[in-house]
Design brief:
Number of strands: 12
Strand content: 5-15%
Largest sheet: 6 strands, antiparallel
Radius of gyration: 24 Å
Helix content: 55-70%
Distance between the termini: 78 Å
């Protein structure tokens, strides 16, 4: 047999339809997955449950309310007293103090609030840096369940003793998060695996907490600055849509196959998905192939191993955008702990509890939103936001464009504004959007959150990447690879589309003659903006 034949045999046959590792501990086909036929029904049922969990209530939903209110009061109360007494002379120290108190309260309240903290931890640039850094501790530093509890859950769901299924099972969790924890193990048949185990009673507790949040949310409207901007009832509904699908691992395993298939369809060879086990997946247990690699934040380790970190970031940007724009499906919870860069430079995507899905008209609206951003079409962007569900269907599009100043001939350069002017501009835009009944659809929230993560990843892995050049390259790639299909779906001639690079440059305060902008240079401009806004806020206090 030739070397070529040997190589072909070494590549697993399931890589012909999905972006799996070349040779996993087993091969999987869709027909083999016992849990797959039920997953779609479970997903519909989960989303149908959201309105019931988030419905307005006059009567407090059970004794859980007392626990939540007591914990939050104990956390925030002393901080408010110190603030009123003027004992927080340093605003940064004050923010760090309240952030620590909120993180401690979230951990004490359990899985639902820890999960909310994890979402905040991925919001660099959207939330105060102190809050983001504090809640990063909720990602994998959450106390693990005792091994006796893990053993009982695994044995109940698999219907067998641990020793009858596993040759070895590490009693110490590899990582522990809000909904579940993961353990390294080896099956009795010899395969190295990761076992994801749901925390006991988490499904019931999350549903109780969502009802409590829905009851509390209306009381926060207009009472604190964050609540005034975030529309707490809508935020609770958004959070509920996200978390309910994480409570059954059969949906997560189905997500793994869907994303693996999507990556293969896009010929995205630089990403892989671990294989879920075709038989050993239940509501509370997910057994999957173990992959090894560098944490996505470990730039030093990757570079020492000869991995091109700029290529890693570039691949991440393209794969994420292609999935959302072309196939309407994307991993919805990118953060450093959910990506491993393998020794060959490929990236393994982990944790598929949250996946964004854009179907039919919503995907078409998302396409139009992306197109409007690159062709400088503000009216088209606002119409697309309406069709995505971010604005009511009867919204006066022309009025929104005018009120937000999107029809200005000159784009504001924030580095030329004072701190007061920047704060006023942000407040003006937020007030106008809230006045039109704006809200953030789940998929758009996940997309923006992932963009924020990628922004931070560029800072760590590729600070000298030319952003303007990358935008041009990605635009050309999409035009050449997907232009005909996307043009057909949008009802336009792709040859007539003109990307407005001057407008993109103007949006970051660059002159049209600028040849490029590295991420490091962008960060310097942001630092100016953040300092002016912080100085204005602290001076006002």
């Amino acid at each position: 047999m030739t070397e070529t034949a040997d190589a072909d045999r070494a590549i697993a046959s399931d890589t012909k339809w999905a972006a799996f590792t070349d040779a996993g501990p087993w091969e999987i086909e869709r027909d083999d997955a016992r849990w797959l036929p039920l997953a779609r029904t479970l997903r519909r049922q989960a989303q149908a449950e959201v309105p019931q969990l988030t419905a307005g209530r006059r009567i407090p939903p059970g004794f859980r309310v007392l626990t939540v209110v007591a914990r939050l009061t104990a956390a925030v109360g002393p901080w408010l007293v110190r603030k009123k007494l003027g004992r927080h002379a340093d605003p940064s120290a004050s923010r760090a103090d309240i952030s620590r108190r909120l993180r401690t309260a979230a951990e004490a309240l359990g899985p639902t609030y820890i999960k909310l903290g994890q979402i905040i931890s991925s919001g660099e640039g959207l939330f105060p840096s102190e809050l983001v850094e504090e809640f990063k501790k909720c990602r994998d530093q959450v106390p693990a369940e005792p091994f006796e509890v893990v053993r009982l859950t695994v044995e109940q769901d698999l219907g067998a003793r641990l020793e009858d299924v596993f040759e070895s099972f590490d009693e110490t969790a590899l990582a522990a998060a809000s909904i579940a924890q993961v353990h390294v193990a080896r099956l009795i048949t010899g395969e190295e695996v990761v076992v994801k185990v749901q925390r006991p009673q988490v499904s019931t507790l999350v549903r109780k907490d969502l009802k409590v949040m829905s009851w509390l949310a209306p009381f926060l409207v207009g009472r604190i600055p964050v609540a005034a901007l975030a529309n707490p009832p809508a935020l609770v509904e958004l959070f509920a849509e996200t978390i309910v699908e994480e409570l059954d691992f059969r949906m997560e395993a189905a997500n793994m196959l869907d994303v693996a298939g999507m990556l293969h369809e896009l010929e995205q060879k630089r990403y892989v998905t671990p294989r879920p086990h075709p038989a050993m997946v239940t509501r509370r247990i997910l057994i999957m192939e173990r992959v090894h690699g560098f944490n996505f934040d470990d730039a030093t380790g990757m570079q020492a191993a000869g991995i091109d970190t700029e290529d890693v970031v570039r691949t991440a940007m393209v794969a994420f955008m292609e999935g959302a724009v072309v196939e309407g499906i994307f991993h919805g919870d990118l953060h450093g702990g959910n990506l491993l860069v393998m020794e060959d430079g490929r990236t393994a995507l982990l944790d598929y509890g949250i996946v964004g899905r854009l179907d039919g008209g919503r995907r078409n609206a998302f396409l139009r939103l992306m197109l409007g951003a690159t062709t400088n079409d503000p009216k088209g962007q606002v119409e697309a936001l309406r069709d995505l569900g971010a604005l009511p269907l009867d919204t006066d599009i022309a009025a929104v464009v005018t009120d937000l100043g999107l029809d200005r001939e000159e784009v504001l350069d924030p580095t030329q504004l004072t701190g007061e002017e920047m704060v006023q501009e942000v407040q003006r835009v937020v007030k106008a959007m809230l006045g039109y009944g704006a809200k953030l659809p789940k998929e758009l929230m996940l997309y923006v959150k992932n963009l924020v993560f990628l922004d931070g990843a560029i800072a760590r892995l590729a600070p000298d990447l030319d952003l303007i050049g990358e935008v041009q390259n990605i635009s050309m790639l999409f035009a050449m690879k997907h232009g005909e299909r996307l043009g057909r779906e949008l009802g336009i001639n792709p040859n007539d589309v003109e990307f407005d690079m001057d407008g993109i440059k103007a949006s970051v305060g660059l002159d049209s003659s600028a040849s490029g902008l590295t991420y490091r240079e962008l960060q310097e401009r942001r630092a100016i903006i953040q300092k002016r806004m912080a100085d204005h806020v602290e001076g006002r206090d």
